[in-house]
Amino acid sequence: MATSVTAEWDVPLMVVKGFTSKAFANSAAEAIDAVGKPAFLYYFGDWDPGGLWVWKDVQAKIRRYAPKADVTFEGVAVTQQQIADYKLPTRPTKRKGNSHAKNFAGNSVEVDALPPVTLQDPVRNCIERYIDKRQLAITKVAEASEREALGVRQSIAMRAFTLVLFGTDSAGHKPFRGAGFGLSGNAAGSASHWRLPLGLLASPQRRRPRRPSRIALRVRYSRCRWHREG
């Protein structure tokens, strides 16, 4: 419902169940103060005596715990206009023993009466009205470029991680200076073999080995290391 829209923009969504506790309101006020920017709080709740009083209670507590914050409050849904426009189903207002219903006229409507798509539109509008479209377009291009570069780096890292390279210097020559080697392994599900100059990977200086040696190179996350075997 509204969660998918707020999550898309990384906008906090706070669920209020009944009257807010002091701890809940205080944590919200602290979050607003920490940002240090104008805050806009939009309320989506039932059109009934309890829902309207909850909204008033939230506003009063936020102002109490964040008196210096620049906060704008707006009730978005449900409204009398929406009830008329969408012909929302109503229910009788509970009045017996309900002190909040004293000045409330008419029937009540739950916020769930709004279809999910209809409810998502005002949520999106509340967020996107503060979005700089030009800056958003630039950010999306930059993010796409970063994802592409990250995909290439991940592909290289995974290929390197799954390979084991064996180089043999059976003639006693310096193995890391242009000698050929056979590369075998399982990269991206294949069992192909390559033939490449070993010097392209590394060329450390070594003394001439006294006897034939076999050099094993193991690639781990694009880092090469070698050691003599036998």
Concise overview:
With 230 residues, the chain is α+β, with helices and mostly antiparallel strands. Helix content is 38%, strand content 20%. It has 2 domains: 2-131, no CATH class; 162-229, no CATH class.
Distinctive features:
38% helix, 2 domains, 230 residues, two-stranded parallel ribbon, 6 helices, alpha+beta, 5-stranded antiparallel sheet
3D architecture notes:
The chain has 230 residues and is an alpha+beta fold. The protein folds into two domains: 2-131, no CATH class; 162-229, no CATH class. The chain is 38% helix and 20% strand. The chain has six helices and seven strands, in the order ααβαβαααβββββ. The protein has helices at residues 2-9, 22-35, 49-65, 80-86, 116-128, 133-161, and strands spanning 39-44, 71-77, 163-169, 180-185, 193-197, 213-220, 223-229. Strands 5-4-3-6-7 form a five-stranded antiparallel β-sheet. A two-stranded parallel ribbon has the order 1-2. Helix 1 runs parallel beside helix 5 (116-128) and helix 2 packs across helix 3. The chain is globular. The two termini are 65 Å apart.
